[in-house]
Recover the amino acids of this structure.
């Protein structure tokens, strides 16, 4: 049940991953519609069906907009600097960034919101909001300033461990309450997204600067996703503030 709930929460992202893999196998360069535009169509139609059948609600709609904007901003900056690139063309692109990529970031935010709701998650003890949001703002800003001024990533890792070292994610599965340290949960989640990054490069959907054919994505990207997921979680908890609790939860310790 735990695995099935995870798959249900990440349904949108899973559909996009499957579409990326299948399209890389069958797409031909002389087809009228480019692969990137077809992936955008898959994302739009999928979201349309989700809302039509009420598989997603207003919270997911907010996540779709916010995380698409956050992700697209990072994409425009990093592709302009040559940190990674999208080798195939497409009609629906902005500064050589295919628009379907924004939906990949949105899938991350939507998955977090769905998991909080499906697992009835509670985050406790949660630090003061100003502290958590301040760290999230510094992390997002560092994604840009690390290429222009200096990189404070190591400091951000340390501060995140200090601020959230005591925070547990309580969740409900199989009729009882369980918990996991929030830092550990972020690491495992980042590991999953890092696997998605490798699928993206393996299918030629995007390529990192200096990455060879079939080469595994750098582990530094794993750290970047850990930090971005922390930002995504803070934004999600603004949408669902009832999921946080300042005092620790002690019931039903596993």
């Amino acid at each position: 049940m735990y695995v099935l709930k995870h798959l249900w929460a990440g349904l949108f992202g899973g559909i996009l991953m499957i579409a990326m893999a299948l399209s890389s196998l069958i797409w031909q360069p002389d087809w009228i519609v480019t692969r990137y535009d077809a992936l955008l169509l898959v994302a739009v139609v999928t979201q349309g069906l989700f809302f039509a059948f009420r598989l997603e609600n207003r919270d997911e709609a907010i996540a779709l907009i916010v995380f698409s904007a956050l992700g697209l901003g990072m994409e425009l900056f990093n592709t302009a600097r040559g940190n990674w690139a999208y080798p195939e063309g497409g009609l629906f692109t902005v500064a050589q960034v295919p628009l379907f990529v924004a939906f990949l970031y949105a899938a991350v935010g939507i998955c977090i919101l769905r998991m909080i709701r499906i697992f009835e998650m509670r985050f406790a003890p949660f630090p003061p909001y100003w502290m958590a949001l301040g760290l999230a703002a510094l992390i997002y800003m560092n994604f840009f300033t690390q290429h222009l001024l200096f990189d404070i990533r190591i400091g951000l890792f340390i501060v995140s461990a200090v601020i959230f070292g005591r925070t547990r994610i309580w969740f409900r599965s199989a009729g009882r309450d369980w918990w996991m340290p929030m830092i550990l949960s972020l690491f495992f989640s980042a590991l999953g997204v890092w696997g998605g990054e490798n699928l993206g490069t393996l299918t030629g959907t995007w390529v990192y600067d200096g990455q060879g054919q079939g080469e595994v994505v750098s582990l530094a990207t794993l750290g970047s996703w850990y930090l971005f997921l922390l930002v995504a979680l803070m934004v999600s908890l603004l949408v669902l503030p009832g999921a946080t609790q300042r005092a620790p939860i002690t019931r039903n310790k596993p």
About this structure: The radius of gyration is 19 Å. The longest helix spans residues 58-80. Residues 2-243 form one domain. The chain has one domain: 2-243.
